[in-house]
Amino acid sequence: MIYRLLFSVFFLNCLLSGTAQIKINAGGEQLNYADASISYAFIEGNDFSDSVLKQFPSQQWHPFNTTRLSIGFKSESLWLRIPLSTIARKGSFEILEIKNPHINFLKVWLLKNDTIVTSFPLTGDHLPFSSKSLPERIFSFPLNTANHISDTLIIAAEKRNTTFKLEIDFSDQQKHMQSLQTSMISWGLISGLVCMLLIINIYLFFSSREWVYCWYGLYLFFFMCYIGTDTGLFFEYLYPNLPQINDLIRPLFFTLCVMPLLLFYSSLLELSKYLPRLYRINAIVLTIYVIAFLIAFATCLTADPNVYQFWLKIQSVYTPTIFLLLMAESVYCVWVRIPFAYFALVSFFVISFFIAMLSMSQNDVLPANWLTNNAHYIAMITDALIVAFSLVYRYKLFKKESEAVQEKYIQQQEKIFHETSLWQQQEMERMSSLLHDSIGGDIGMLRLKTETMELTNAGRNQLASIVRRLGDEVRYMSHHFSPVLLKERGLHDALQDIVRRMREDLNIAVQFEWLGNKDNPSFKYQIIVYRIVQELLQNIKKHAQATEVIVQIMMEAKNIGIYVEDNGRGQTKSNDIKDGIGLKSIRHLTELLNGKFEVSPGEEHGFVVSVEFERQ
To answer: Beta strand pairing status for 166-171 and 22-26?
Structure first.
């Protein structure tokens, strides 16, 4: 509770301790503007030539003695006049830093008695960054205040019709280098982290073909592009001759981040499966968003500042509204207990909160400070980490579920093995009984015959007949209990052999059909199908008194189906058949395979047995 209270106090302090739209520091300490003799002016146009400064009317300068001067969304350029004698009271400084990376045009002069001593090159976000060390997000100028105590600093800046905040800092060389190194390390860590996550998600997408990784990777890609535009790297190296699109490209990538984020959570929460109506609503919202985005992009290409300002204000309202809508949806998903909905709720809450904070800061509802100025970066980085955590949690959960499924599969295979072993044991017992009753009896008869039989031609023929019958029975049982064809030629030919022998031995019209791929499944499934068909035909042979039988095998990529139908006297109860494995054992084996077993009466007589199960 204490930690929450301390965090709340710290957060409110950061939020409410705002700075002015114009802030001037010397050595990190804010100047007393009322005593600093600083003045400002607003002038139409962005002609920052030396001749304009020389002709600058003195009556246009106004004393700057407030901490809240509104300079945003104006059509004029801002000019500041700062006596360096005021700065020298705070110490000696070597660097002038202007901490707004997106000033369109920026010009700095040094005057001595209204005469230009130094005229720094014109720079700004619409010009190559001659005074900006990339990827540092500030403009810096060498300025030794100790050598210019009696001089006056003139700063002219233009960022018309948009939000504009200007922070000026006089710093020494050591602090400037430390700040630059810290900034480089920070940007390097952020860029490295995003690149690492992007590469990992590209790999995961191509290895798993799951769209959640594609959408997250696309989100990270747009985030990287936004970093490239916000730091000026894209403008410096990709389109240095097209400064007019620099202000357009930056919000473009920020806006594009919304689309893959929406698609990511739609895939992660499986809205199309759990909440199809909400999924369709999101599709409509996304379509409207894309259409508005394309219209905004096309109209902003006209380079009309009023159009750009209009869409910028629309974005500052429309984008937070979408995130608030998505946050409301995530609350509903949590309420109906959709998996991973808590991640969506936290994600949309964080990004909605910080984007709303940024929007209110840009519209002067909240004061400008470090928290509000960097709210968009905090939102995007935090959201990227939340999404990464959601994928890690999803992976761990799926891994746990897959391990449970694997354990269940192993147990199922053990049960199937036990069942088939029991089946084999029953078959061995039946073979033993057949050998004793049939072959044993025939051999006993043969022994008696040979003891009393005269060795005449008739006796030898009778003896040969008995031996031939014994051979046929041994060969039949050999085929029945050890399906050699199954091992040598596969399931299809082995089943055809069973059908052929049934036709020949019993004079029954047996129709055999094989539907689907004739490639053999694994030998385990061949044995199971072979034994089920064998047992069903054995039951028909013993009990059905049928004259026509249809055997149909359906072999699909993932499923196996066995259908046997006869026109015999039929069975009212499956318990009537108790010989061998019986229908009970077939039913039990099918249940172990998570399949379906059905026995139904035929259209006129007989019955139909249907067995279906999935390959694993």
So the answer is: parallel
Beta strands per DSSP E along 28-137: 29-30, 39-44, 62-63, 76-83, 95-98, 105-112, 115-119
| Burial class of residue 375 in the structure, from the number of CB atoms within 10 Å of its CB (0-12 exposed, 13-18 middle, 19+ buried) | buried
The owner of tokens 């976000």 is 125
Radius of gyration of the chain (CA): 43
* Phi and psi torsions of 141, nearest 5°: -135, 135
pTM of the predicted structure, to 2 decimals: 0.61
Please report, as a single letter, which amino acid is at residue 584. Answer: K
Residue range 102-128, pLDDT digits in tens:
788 889 999 988 888 889 988 887 776
**Contact (Cβ atoms closer than 8 angstroms) between residue 235 and residue 246:** yes
Rounded-to-integer distance, Cα 548 and Cα 546, Å: 6
CA-nearest of 353, 348, 330, 349 to 340 is: 330
Which residues make Cβ contacts (< 8 Å) with residue 97, sequence separation at least 6? 138, 139, 140, 168, 169, 170, 171, 176
| Distances 421 to 418, 531, 611 between C-alpha atoms, Å | 5, 12, 20
**8 A C-beta contact, residue 368 and residue 17:** no
Q: Are 371 and 357 in contact (CB under 8 A)?
A: yes
Summarised one tens digit per residue, pLDDT across range 522-534 is 777 887 888 888 8
Which residues are registered as beta bridge partners of 23?
Answer: 167
Residue carrying structure tokens 């995003």: 194
Residue 248 in tokens:
């357009």
* CA–CA separation, 570 and 572 (whole Å): 7
**Closest by alpha carbon to 263, among 255, 275, 271?**
271
Amino acid, single-letter form, for residue 604: E
Distance of alpha carbon 414 from alpha carbon 551, whole angstroms: 29
Which residue positions in the chain have pLDDT lower than 50?
1-20, 573-580
What distance in Å separates the CA atoms of residue 117 and residue 401, rounded to the nearest whole number? 74
| Residue 430 confidence (pLDDT) | 60
Contacts of 524 (CB under 8 A, 6+ apart): 416
Token pair 């895939």 in the structure block, residue: 267
Q: Identify each DSSP E strand in 150-216 by its residue range.
A: 152-158, 166-171
Question: 116 phi and psi, to 5 degrees?
Answer: -70, 120
Structure tokens at 218: 């696309």
State the Cα angle at 174 between 173 and 175, rounded to 5°: 95
The dihedral through the CA atoms of 538, 540, 545, 549 has a sign that is negative
C-alpha triplet 219, 221, 223: angle, nearest 5°: 70
Helix, strand, coil % (nearest 5) of the chain?
Answer: 60, 15, 25
Note whether 151 and 84 are within 8 A (CB): yes
Q: How far apart are CA 81 and CA 38, in angstroms?
A: 6
Taking alpha carbons only, the member of 169, 170, 162, 217 closest to residue 194 is 217
Asked whether the beta carbons of 595 and 556 are under 8 A apart, the reply is no
- In 3D space, the residue among 40, 102, 111 whose CA is nearest the CA of residue 77 turns out to be 40
